[in-house]
Write the structure tokens for this entry.
Amino acid sequence: MTENCLFCGIVAGNIPSTQVASNERAIAFMDINPATPGHLLVVPRAHSTDLREADAEDLIGATLLAQSLVGRVIERLNADGANLLSCIGAEAWQSVFHTHLHVVPRYQDDPLKLPWHPTPGDMEQIQATAAKLL
């Protein structure tokens, strides 16, 4: 755990999140600035800044967890597809410097154009969507 890292705080349980899945190496929780309904983050439990320095076993755990969540969002949220995105560096839209994968459900008529500009979501809607993925 790295001090002052938002995602380390979430992994440690010191910062609240709406967790929907986990395994030995990673956790998944709802993004509080969702690009589309059901937007999730998959975060290795161990701190690394980005994919370049992440432990291979952590990446495997996070990727397998993301794979299972892609299936859930398509099936349970009636998404038409999904984006799996990892941002590496500020110029590539990385805003939290802890390795993470975005699982972004895509819907035929959604307005998302990459890059999106995060804005706070409705917490009740985020939590209701999370309940569908548990």
Notes: Residues 6-133 form a domain with the HIT family, subunit A fold (CATH 3.30.428.10).
